[in-house]
Amino acid sequence: MSIGLECRDGVATVTLDRPEKHNALDLADARALSRTWRKLRTDRAVRAAVVTGAGRRAFCTGVDRSAVADAEAVPQPTSPFAVEDPLLSIGPKSNDLWIPVLAAVEGMACGGAFYLLSEAEFLVATEESAFFDPHTTYGMVSAYEAMGMAQRMPFGEVARMALMGTAERISGRRAYQTGLVSELAPAGGALDAALDCARTLASYPPEAVQGTVRAVWAAKEAARSQARAQAPQLIALGNLPAARQAELFAGRRRSGRDGAAFRTR
Question: Which CDD domains does UniProt cross-reference here (predicted)?
Answer without folding.
Answer: crotonase-like
